[in-house]
């Protein structure tokens, strides 16, 4: 059973993600995780003031259930289906990260330099998490989808808008990593 | 309740696959944008190829409700996709998490990611406020 505990290769995970999308379409729904952010705003009452959130969030309960499952899946995979691993990063990547102040790159899922409570509650760390999360939430609704809705579902159904959005994802990601990271972390 | 059980299972599968693929790792996203590994491109690439094939061969099949197996069509446009996509990409690279992994990471015990989710909710809310003033 060691192959379950080891990281799964990309050629297994990619098709499995497509199958997840396909199952949701078979259930008469669609694969789009970021929609839940809008649903949660609506659930919290944002529809009273803002028209964009004025819809019946209960029609989206199925998608919130997918999210609940994803949290449980994360818990199960991390606790029971993984042996402690080093992520097999490119040594070049590890070296560059080291110069940016990230030590022990790949020895955990998330860098403690950003996500340990000490880091997350420092002024700089908190600002990074809030700005990062804000950009994801704002950008995904502006673009009408995230990685699941555009990169997986949209590209699989050969939709041009999704290709444009995915190009946008990469423009943003490349600007952040190549131009802004050396300014933020040094 | 029972009708939601199937969605719960799909979600669990999704969470497991994303952890086991390491796609929830900040490091893997960084490495992807540095083009220093094929890993993430392999995941997304094989997902899209498999997705294209599955959608093509299922065109004539019916879904569980007896309807057609269809994917909602995105509105035509350019501006919102390129600008919105770029803003999303900036946040994705900085935080290392897109909306799915955010929840999944909380499941793995990374509770500081809740800050990210709250900020993403705020971002979504602000988009809703500004929507009519933004070019689409």
Automatic annotation (TrEMBL), chain A:
<feature type="transmembrane region" description="Helical">
    <location>
        <begin position="62"/>
        <end position="81"/>
    </location>
</feature>
<keyword id="KW-0812">Transmembrane</keyword>
<feature type="transmembrane region" description="Helical">
    <location>
        <begin position="119"/>
        <end position="139"/>
    </location>
</feature>
<dbReference type="GO" id="GO:0005886">
    <property type="term" value="C:plasma membrane"/>
</dbReference>
<feature type="transmembrane region" description="Helical">
    <location>
        <begin position="7"/>
        <end position="28"/>
    </location>
</feature>
<keyword id="KW-0472">Membrane</keyword>
<keyword id="KW-1133">Transmembrane helix</keyword>
<keyword id="KW-0997">Cell inner membrane</keyword>
<comment type="similarity">
    <text>Belongs to the TsuA/YedE (TC 9.B.102) family.</text>
</comment>
<dbReference type="Pfam" id="PF04143">
    <property type="entry name" value="Sulf_transp"/>
</dbReference>
<keyword id="KW-0813">Transport</keyword>
<keyword id="KW-1003">Cell membrane</keyword>
<dbReference type="InterPro" id="IPR007272">
    <property type="entry name" value="Sulf_transp_TsuA/YedE"/>
</dbReference>
<feature type="transmembrane region" description="Helical">
    <location>
        <begin position="160"/>
        <end position="185"/>
    </location>
</feature>
<protein>
    <submittedName>
        <fullName>YeeE/YedE family protein</fullName>
    </submittedName>
</protein>
């Amino acid at each position: 059973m060691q192959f379950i505990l080891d990281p799964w290769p990309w050629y297994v995970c990619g098709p499995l993600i497509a199958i997840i999308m396909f199952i949701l379409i078979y259930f008469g729904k669609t694969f789009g995780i970021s929609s839940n952010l809008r649903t949660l705003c609506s659930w919290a009452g944002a529809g009273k003031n803002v028209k964009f959130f004025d819809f019946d969030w209960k029609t989206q309960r199925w998608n919130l259930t997918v999210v609940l499952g994803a949290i449980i899946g994360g818990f199960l995979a991390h606790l029971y289906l993984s042996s402690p691993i080093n992520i097999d990063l490119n040594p070049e990547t590890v070296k560059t990260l080291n110069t940016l102040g990230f030590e022990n790159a790949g020895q955990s899922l998330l860098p403690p330099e950003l996500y340990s409570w000490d880091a997350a509650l420092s002024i700089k760390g908190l600002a990074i998490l809030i700005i990062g999360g804000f950009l994801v939430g704002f950008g995904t609704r502006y673009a009408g989808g995230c990685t699941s809705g555009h990169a997986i579902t949209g590209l699989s159904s050969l939709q041009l808008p999704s290709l444009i959005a995915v190009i946008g994802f990469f423009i943003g990601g490349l600007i952040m990593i190549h131009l802004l990271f050396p300014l933020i972390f040094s | 309740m029972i009708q939601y059980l199937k969605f719960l299972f799909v979600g669990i599968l999704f969470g497991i696959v994303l952890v086991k693929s390491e796609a929830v790792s900040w490091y893997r996203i960084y490495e992807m944008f540095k083009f220093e590994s094929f890993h993430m491109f392999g995941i997304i690439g094989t997902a899209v190829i498999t997705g294209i094939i599955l959608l093509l061969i299922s065109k004539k099949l019916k879904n569980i409700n007896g309807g057609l197996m269809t994917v909602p069509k995105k509105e035509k446009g350019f501006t919102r996709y390129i600008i919105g996509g770029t803003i999303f990409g900036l946040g994705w690279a900085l935080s290392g998490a897109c909306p799915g992994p955010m929840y999944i990471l909380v499941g793995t015990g990374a509770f500081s990611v809740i800050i990210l989710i709250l900020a993403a909710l705020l971002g979504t809310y602000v988009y809703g406020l500004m929507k009519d003033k933004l070019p689409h």
